[in-house]
Amino acid sequence: MIKLMRAQSTGLRGTMTVPGDKSISHRALMFGAIAQGVTEIENFLVSDDVLHTMAVFRELGVTIDQHGKHVRVIGRGSEHFTQPQKALDMGNSGTSTRLLMGLLSRQPFNIHIVGDESLSRRPMKRVLTPLALMGADIRLSENDTLPGVIYANSQVTGITYEMPVASAQVKSAILLAGIQAEGVTTIIEKIPSRDHTERMLRQFGGTITVKDGRVSVTKHQHLTGQHVIVPSDISSAAFFIVAGLITPNSKLTIKKVGINKTRDGVLQLLKRMGANIVMSNINVNGEPFADITIEAQQLKGIDITEKDIPSSVDELPIIALAATQAQGDTTITGAGELRVKETDRIATVISELTKLGANIEALEDGMIIHGGTPLHVTNESALLTSHGDHRIGMMNAIAALITTGGDVVLTGEDAISVSYPGFLENLSRVMI
Ligand SMILES: O=C(O)C1=C[C@@H](OP(=O)(O)O)[C@@H](O)[C@H](O)C1
Ligand SMILES: C=C(OP(=O)(O)O)C(=O)O
């Protein structure tokens, strides 16, 4: 489908909510499935990625009822999964694949896993290596990608593992295997990655120790069904936060956004760029959340380095767009992980924004964004594509808002439903 965005919006105004957090929705299904008893999930994200996780658990024999954003999971423990009748389809979702490889590493039957074309290019050895050290028998295709098979296996054993890449998906895969493993499993992280798995394990009654960058779990966790309230996704809110800051005459409030410290990098980076981000109604419900208000203002360029990346990794495309409008240059380094997301996000950010006149240089592990480049289409129109990547599709739509001259035509925006169905509708609702 091709959609024409009205370029040169005269501003974004109003109060809005964005859908539930993707990372937390995946995990709520997973813990609900392995706990004993009923888990009720509120403000669940109904998006393609999370629906793939849901379909996987149904295939494993778990009863899940979904009514819009309300989900009920009837958990009977991971010992009662039934053998799937077909390959488990992870769709486009790295989180489903990697976390489930850990969670399913000790089942008494073989499990085949497949994904779409993009997911089948993404690196899975990072999960296979620690899980194999624990005794899991997982085999992947050439180049260590999907499709793969998790072979029947009766025992996993705890390990101490120093993370070679900062990745919450790898950490979570090891933890989900660790709570079924003999002995102690310890993960050592140099830079903290998102801690939703740790928090949710505690919320479900499990025990986990976190100290000085070391996260440890053991077996015999008595997990019981819980009531989980999912905050709105800061990664989705980030598109509106940046849109509000860079589109003249804007003032937006986004309600009940998750502000977990291991996820709020986008707020910290924008504050360093000079943004005035006002937080109100700060509250906690398992995860902290707040209302966030921003107004259009001038930003300035900053240096973003390795330590900033894990808490902002999915937001770097939209930060890059903000940086094109800042005074001075913004340098992003230590972000090689961007190359192995749904697309190579260093390449796709540059490919799309330069069509509108942005001046961005690629680095092996990041980019240099030269600020102060008004986005403009000199011809009748410019054709932007998402490359099948939801975050690039949303970045393109926000870039179109501030582009002058010809029209901006968006293609491939159906990919946005991976994390944010209704994004374009929500955007047009706040456009004045
Ligand atoms: O654990 C998670 O829910 C996620 C972790 C991140 O991936 P990595 O762990 O690969 O950095 C992030 O990019 C992804 O969108 C969700
Ligand atoms: C990288 C992402 O997700 P996943 O790894 O789950 O595909 C994302 O949502 O930007």
Automatic annotation (TrEMBL):
One GO location term (cellular component): cytoplasm
GO molecular function per UniProt: 3-phosphoshikimate 1-carboxyvinyltransferase activity
SUPFAM superfamilies per record: EPT/RTPC-like (SSF55205)
UniProt-annotated binding residues for 3-phosphoshikimate: K22, S23, R27, S167, Q169, D314, K341
Protein's pathway: Metabolic intermediate biosynthesis; chorismate biosynthesis; chorismate from D-erythrose 4-phosphate and phosphoenolpyruvate: step 6/7
EC number assigned by the record: 2.5.1.19
Family: Belongs to the EPSP synthase family.
PANTHER family recorded: AROM/DEHYDROQUINATE SYNTHASE (PTHR21090), PENTAFUNCTIONAL AROM POLYPEPTIDE (PTHR21090:SF5)
Annotated protein name in UniProt: 3-phosphoshikimate 1-carboxyvinyltransferase
Annotated source species: Leuconostoc kimchii (strain IMSNU 11154 / KCTC 2386 / IH25)
